[in-house]
Amino acid sequence: HPTIAPYGAFDCADGKVLLLSVQNDREWCKLCEIFGEPEAADRPDFATNDDRVANRAAVDAFVGGHIAQRSREENIELLESARIAIGRLSEMQDVVEHPQNRFIEVPTPNGPLDLLAPGAIVRDAPHPTYGPVPERDAHGAAIRAEVAQKIKGG
């Protein structure tokens, strides 16, 4: 973000990435405190958000050095306890393991396959049914006939 610092993605000790946004000077002081360096909040180049934006590279190096000492989940626990805005930069494995996910088994020509189910289920509405994955060209003749008819103006 061009007007907020620190704001961005930081690498954690476990190789995962954490998004961090310090949105005001109170949060900056709290961040420095939880990093064990409360005096850093008063450095002339870090004291205000304008100072931090002007010295973004140094701020990012300071924050990144501290974030890199812990795993993403350890950082999240620490930063959430300080009420500092964070987010996970999800990798595919994070998406697969998300607790709100549901998987469905779908038949395919090569055997059943577990797929991520559509996200929304509406209460009191019929649950959708999922058919098999069609074989190659299973509907090709019908599609080609429909396209040919539309080309002819039908």
Describe this entry's structure for a reader.
36% of the residues lie in helices and 15% in strands. The radius of gyration is 25 Å and the shape is elongated. It is of the alpha+beta class.
- Percent helix: 25-40%
Average pLDDT, to the nearest integer? 91
Strand tally is 5
Q: Strands of the biggest beta sheet: in what spatial order?
A: 1-2-3
Uncertain residue segments: none
Structural class: alpha+beta
How do the SSEs run, as a string of H and E? EEHHHHEHEEH
What count of helical segments does DSSP give?
6
Give the biggest sheet.
Answer: 3 strands, antiparallel
Topology:
Elements: E1 7-11, E2 17-21, H1 25-34, H2 49-54, H3 56-67, H4 72-81, E3 85-89, H5 92-97, E4 103-106, E5 113-116, H6 140-151
Antiparallel strand pairs: 1-2, 2-3, 4-5
Structural features:
154 residues, alpha+beta, 3-stranded antiparallel β-sheet, two-stranded antiparallel ribbon, 15% strand
Short description:
This protein has 154 residues and is an alpha+beta fold. It has helices at residues 25-34, 49-54, 56-67, 72-81, 92-97, 140-151, and strands spanning 7-11, 17-21, 85-89, 103-106, 113-116.
